[in-house]
From TrEMBL, chains A, B:
Organism: Lentzea fradiae
Domain HTH tetR-type: 6-66
Keyword annotations: DNA-binding, Transcription, Transcription regulation
Keyword Plastid listed: no
Domain of life, per lineage: Bacteria
GO molecular function, one term: DNA-binding transcription factor activity
Residues annotated to bind DNA: 29-48
SUPFAM superfamilies: Homeodomain-like, Tetracyclin repressor-like, C-terminal domain
Protein name, entry field: Transcriptional regulator, TetR family
Length: 187, 187
DNA sequence: CTGTGAAGCTAATGCCATTAGCTTCTCTCG
DNA sequence: CGAGAGAAGCTAATGGCATTAGCTTCACAG
């Protein structure tokens, strides 16, 4: 029998993610996680090596969540439809969880803990561009351009960086069209 | 006569900016600024209200610096030449000062301290697009798209977010061309 | 020559992460 | 059934940091 109220690394990350969603990255503190999980702060070290590591695991959780969400969004679609769906899904995720998105480091690829999760997310983007007949570095460039657009827009919107939210839907539609035209123009 | 070794708010921000450049935002601590300015930590409060305020002032400094740099870059140019110069200047600034760029909040527009500096920077972008005959909200959208691209690329590059730096120049050139084509297509 | 205000200092508080070392509980194996 | 080992939790202690309070000093103005 597994004990009932036992804390696990997963539960610690759950609590941490909730804190990030509610109060942003600055709100993620071991003291707060301890309170929320009903445990003394030093006890957390039985499940997590440090605050830094906990932050990394939260990042993994978010990256995996995004990957799942985006995969669902593009399943069964291809070409412009798939790209459009992916871009809308990306924005929708960030609008729904703005603080969470701001907490994910932009450079997960070289991180020991987050590397795999980051690469999987990139894979989804890369795969979505299949069918455009891009070869070698062309595909890499196209993926990068896509990432620049979705991340650029999302990170600004997540932090309220556009003045008024007036017409943001239009701006995003224009970005999507710009990207699709660009893909087409290079074929 | 003004005393020689007197600390001033400006000197405090100087030291803070150096710390950010060297060790990133996390490295910006009042204790470190105190050491670097040769003063006891509490003495800083004679010049700065809090660590948060100091961070905001560092942000202002960077925004002003960027504005100056970009203004120089586009002076005397117009149309595609001006846009290209602005985009290259943006990337060049961030490559030269990556940690500094990461320290600037993405939402300076609504901040009491940084609002004016943020708006001036946006003004430069907006003005660079003069001459394309964009009317009303068209100009707003075009400015936003430009910002999305330059910020998206720069923030990823600044944190080493692209896998290898292979071919990043090409990727950026493609983004510039994409944006220019987009501007042209809408005229 | 004096006194006032700014700039600096030391002492103290409180929050947080992290470490050390002890206790307790649970499951496994004899 | 009965240890005993290992995991998970706890309290106490340390050290870094921001911030506040209240004192001292010093340059300058009158």
């Amino acid at each position: 029998m597994v004990a009932r109220n036992r804390l696990t690394p997963a539960k610690v990350v759950d609590a941490a993610l909730d804190l990030v969603d509610e109060h942003g990255v600055e709100g993620l503190t071991l003291a707060a996680v301890a309170t929320r999980t009903g445990v003394a702060a030093p006890s957390l070290y039985k499940h997590v090596a440090s605050l830094a590591e906990l932050r990394a695991h939260v990042g993994v959780r978010v990256l995996e969540n995004m990957t799942e969400w985006f995969t669902d969004a593009v399943l069964g679609l291809s070409g412009d439809e798939a790209v459009t769906a992916l871009m809308h899904a990306y924005r929708a995720y960030v609008v729904r969880h703005p603080k969470r998105y701001s907490a994910v480091p932009v450079d997960p690829l070289h991180d020991e803990i987050q590397g795999a999760a980051g690469r999987k997310l990139m894979e989804v983007m890369f795969a979505t561009l299949r069918g455009y007949g891009l070869e070698g570095s062309e595909a890499v460039h196209a993926t990068r351009r896509l990432r620049v657009i979705v991340h650029g827009f999302a990170s600004i919107e997540a932090e309220g960086g556009f003045g008024l939210p007036e017409g943001l839907d239009d701006t995003y539609d224009q970005l999507i069209r710009m990207y699709l035209d660009d893909l087409r123009g290079k074929s």
